[in-house]
Write a structure and sequence with these properties.
With 187 residues, this protein is of the alpha+beta class. It has two domains: 4-133; 137-181, no CATH class. It has six helices and seven strands. A four-stranded antiparallel sheet has the order 2-3-4-5. It has a three-stranded antiparallel sheet with strand order 6-1-7. It starts with a strand and ends in a 6-residue tail after the last helix.
């Protein structure tokens, strides 16, 4: 649970990946964000790209491309999952705990990359900023989700502990029961 931005697409030209990495490195450097190029020397032809780590409590932005130029999640690289699965063709970054400006900046970056390199980029923004550019709506969504996280966390910390040998199904059932008992906001 939390505010995330999901994105998927294919780079317009795979031969533009080095330029993409270079330009994104320059942009990140200007923001004082860390970067990690992926297979810059092209030693692994299956995956190339860059990971950008925004400052603060934000998950990294992964721009990892496979041989066909499709964006792939970091887990595919780590698991050496060369052939995509139904879960492989989208990636995301959680911005719930980052400054609101970081979320806005990431959306601006994705808009720029769509115009320049990823014309078929699809973005699903849980804060709806990609779709609306409504900063107040983004703030409200973030605050709502933060409140839910705190409420669920508090309820879980007060719950009677499960036995050590509890199954995964028992843990899930307990969490679901706790969440169902939470008061609902009727507004």
């Amino acid at each position: 649970m939390g505010l995330s931005i999901h994105y998927s697409g294919t780079i317009d030209r795979t031969e533009a990946i080095p330029k993409f990495v270079e330009e994104l490195s320059d942009i990140a450097d200007s923001m004082d964000w860390m970067v990690q190029p992926i297979n810059e020397d092209e030693s692994d032809p299956n995956f190339r790209g860059i990971i950008v780590n925004p400052k603060g409590d934000c998950e990294p932005l992964c721009f990892i491309f496979d041989r066909e130029g499709r964006l792939r999640p970091l887990m595919d690289l780590l698991n050496e999952q060369v052939e995509p699965t139904r879960y492989s063709l989208a990636t995301s970054t959680k911005t719930q705990f980052a400054e609101i400006e970081t979320h806005v900046w990431i959306i601006g970056l994705l808009r720029y990359l769509k115009k320049r390199y990823l014309s078929n980029l699809k973005v699903s923004d849980e804060g709806e900023y990609w779709e609306t550019e409504d900063l107040e709506k983004l703030r409200e969504k973030k605050q709502f989700l933060q409140g839910m996280i705190e409420q669920i966390g508090g309820a879980l910390s007060e719950a009677e502990p499960l036995p050590e040998d509890a199954s995964v199904d028992e843990m899930i059932a307990r969490i679901e029961a706790i969440v169902k008992e939470l008061p609902r906001d009727t507004e």
